[in-house]
Each structure stands twice: as C-alpha cells, then as structure tokens.
C-alpha cells in the first residue's frame, strides 16, 4: 500500500529494523515484538490492529481502466489499498449484522448492440426507481444498491476499476478521488465501471466492451427521452452555453454529452467532429470551461454512518471505531461528538 520495498521500509525506519529482519517478519519466521510493531505501524500509516485482522479480502479478476498509464507498482498499491478499505468495511457490516445481498437486474440481457445497452440503462433506472430525473450522488446510489464504492486519492493515470469479492459475490468499484478529478468525470467513470459489472458482454472483445460501457454511462446520465425534450430531435447548431447548462444540471461532461448527442443522431457525425475539433483547439478536451463546472455531491457517508451507529449502540468500543477508521484513538476522539 505504501509502495515500499523492504529496503525502502528499512530506510524509512532509520534502520531501527534491518532489511534482513523485515524479510523474516514478512516470511513469518520471526514475530515482531510490540515495540517493533509500533515502529512498523507508524512507518506504514496503519494501526497495530491491522496486523491481527481476521477478515482477509480476496478480489476476483481485476480490470483497470486506462491501465496502460499505470506501472505494475501503481496497480499493486491500488489493489492493496482496495483490499484494506473493503476489509474494514466488511468487518463493520459483520459487527452490525448486515447481510450482503446483490442482485444483477441485467443478468438475462445479452449485449450485442447499442440498442441493447440503451435498454439496459432504461431497465436499471426502472428497477432502481430512478425515473428520468438527473442522478444525484451516483456514489451513494451505488452503495444503496449493495455495491461497495471505494475512493482513493491517487495520481493522474488511474481512473477506476471494478472487481468482485471472491466467495461473497459482492461487487466493488474503485474511483480516483484526487483533486484533479472533477465530479462529472468521477460520475461517468462510476457508471462505466458499473456497466462492466452488470452487462453480459463476455462474448465481446475488449474494444467493444469499452465502447458499450461508455455508451451505458452516457445513457444513464442523459436518457434518450430527456435528450429529445431538452435539445429537440435534430440540431444543426449548438452553443457551448447551452451544453454547459445541461452539464450543470445532469452532471455529464460537455465532451460526453456530445458523444451522446451523436449516438442518438440528434447531431450529425460531421457536426460532432467539427465540435470536437473546436473543443481540442480551445483546450477543453482536458479542462472544460470552469463557469460550467458541475457542483453536485459525489460522495457516500455510509461507512461513517454505520460506524457511529455501531458505536452508539455499544456494538464496538471507541478504540475499535478508531481501528476501523484507521485512526489513532486520540485523533478519532477529537473528531467525534457524543449527543
């Protein structure tokens, strides 16, 4: 999780523990005493309880988005951070007695075309009773439907990933919540990863899967019927101001919105190419105009809510709550207010 080699960890510990001793700890040949555990915990930014946790999360096949931008070391860091976050989450739910039940409403739909993907998006909105209104707080929406969403503050290059927890059939989506990641981008990535989890596409090649997952994200954010109401069935001209207002309302980037309008044939392919060339010329493909930034809420507080519920109902001690939050007890106490 820290991206350290054994020698790197020894250096960080100012050689209080040698690389050779760390290797023996790692293999299980020697058990560190409490003082050494304290040093290790501080250096690795975990509590000592981490080394005694009983719940161990094993993830199934992991698919990174834009994996070509990540080194194998970066991938390992993200995977291990994910396992650690999920382990604490599952332990808390186990303490409270929450059962893990996830049902895929799309498991019987085989995806072969964009019309199949469109139907899948409509089905999800229908089964989850979302109507056609703009989606508010997609991260919390996914958690409300038994999908674990983990947010990691990572460098550019990591967008998101999805996997299943082995033996428990619990879906997990991991998103980059770094400062450079704007909420409209996070929303699109979350729904893209949801598509990987839900859509029956095992018979398709990777390129087609990515295309359909992007289509699904656009269809979820800006439904077909709403697009026709907001913009009309056919357009030969658009103003950036108009697209910016829609972005602020629906939480879909202008770039993703243009793809959606092309896919729905509201704008022609040639006009789409013209608009995308203009976006590139203006530098908006990387950073869209700040005056049209989407300012919604894209965060779930479910873990914190469950934590304080367990604490209030005396299911866990203050020390255990601090452990599950990966905080020192004094730090956790300073952030907790008791009614």
Can you describe what's shown?
GO terms for molecular function: DNA binding. Belongs to the short-chain fatty acyl-CoA assimilation regulator (ScfR) family. It comes from Pontibacter fetidus. By secondary structure, the chain is mainly alpha-helical. It folds into 3 domains: 45 residues, no CATH class; 179 residues; 34 residues, no CATH class. The protein is built from 15 helices and 4 strands. It has a 4-stranded mixed sheet with strand order 1-3-4-2, sandwiched between helices. Strand 3 and strand 4 form a beta hairpin. The radius of gyration is 23 Å and the shape is elongated. The two termini are 36 Å apart. The mean pLDDT is 91.
Q: Report low-confidence residues grouped into runs of 5 or more.
A: none
- Taken in chain order, the helices and strands follow as HHHEHHHEEEHHHHHHHHH
Q: How many helical stretches?
A: 15
What is the count of β-strands?
4
Structural class: mainly alpha
Count up the domains: 3
Relative strand content: 5-15%
Q: Sheet with the most strands?
A: 4 strands, mixed
- Widest sheet, order of strands: 1-3-4-2
Termini distance?
36 Å
| Overall body shape | elongated
Portion in helices? 40-55%
Rounded Rg: 23 Å
User: How would you state the average pLDDT, rounded?
Assistant: 91
InterPro entries: Cro/C1-type_HTH (IPR001387), IrrE_HExxH (IPR010359), Lambda_DNA-bd_dom_sf (IPR010982), Rad_response_metalloprotease (IPR052345)
GO molecular function: DNA binding
Family: Belongs to the short-chain fatty acyl-CoA assimilation regulator (ScfR) family.
Pfam families: HTH_3, Peptidase_M78
């Amino acid at each position: 999780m820290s991206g350290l080699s054994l020698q790197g960890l020894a250096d960080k510990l100012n050689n209080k523990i040698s690389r050779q001793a760390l290797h023996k700890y790692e293999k299980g040949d020697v058990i560190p005493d409490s003082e050494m555990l304290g040093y290790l915990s501080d250096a690795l930014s975990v509590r000592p309880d981490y080394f005694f946790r009983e719940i161990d999360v094993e993830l199934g096949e992991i698919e990174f988005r834009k994996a070509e931008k990540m080194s194998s070391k970066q991938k390992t860091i993200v995977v291990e951070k994910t396992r650690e976050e999920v382990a604490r989450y599952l332990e808390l739910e186990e303490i409270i007695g929450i059962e893990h039940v996830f049902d895929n409403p799309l498991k019987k739909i085989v995806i072969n075309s964009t019309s199949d993907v469109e139907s899948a998006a409509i089905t999800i909105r229908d089964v989850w009773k979302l109507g056609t209104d703009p989606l508010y707080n997609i991260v919390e929406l996914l958690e409300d439907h038994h999908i674990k969403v983990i947010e990691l503050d990572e460098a550019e290059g990591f967008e998101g990933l999805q996997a299943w927890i082995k033996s428990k059939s619990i879906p997990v989506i991991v998103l980059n919540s770094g400062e450079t990641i704007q909420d409209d981008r996070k929303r699109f990535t979350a729904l893209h990863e949801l598509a990987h989890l839900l859509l029956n596409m095992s018979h398709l090649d990777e390129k087609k899967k990515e295309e359909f997952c992007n289509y699904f994200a656009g269809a979820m954010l800006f439904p077909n019927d709403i697009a026709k109401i907001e913009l009309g069935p056919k357009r030969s001209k658009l103003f950036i101001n108009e697209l910016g207002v829609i972005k602020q309302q629906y939480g879909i980037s202008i770039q993703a919105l243009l793809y959606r309008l092309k896919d729905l044939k509201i704008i022609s392919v040639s006009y789409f190419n013209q608009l995308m060339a203009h976006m590139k010329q203006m530098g908006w493909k990387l950073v869209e105009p700040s005056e049209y930034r989407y300012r919604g809420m894209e965060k779930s507080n479910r873990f914190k809510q469950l934590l304080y519920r367990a604490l209030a109902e005396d299911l866990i001690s203050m020390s255990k709550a601090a452990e599950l939050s990966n905080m020192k007890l004094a730090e956790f106490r300073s952030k907790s207010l008791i009614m």
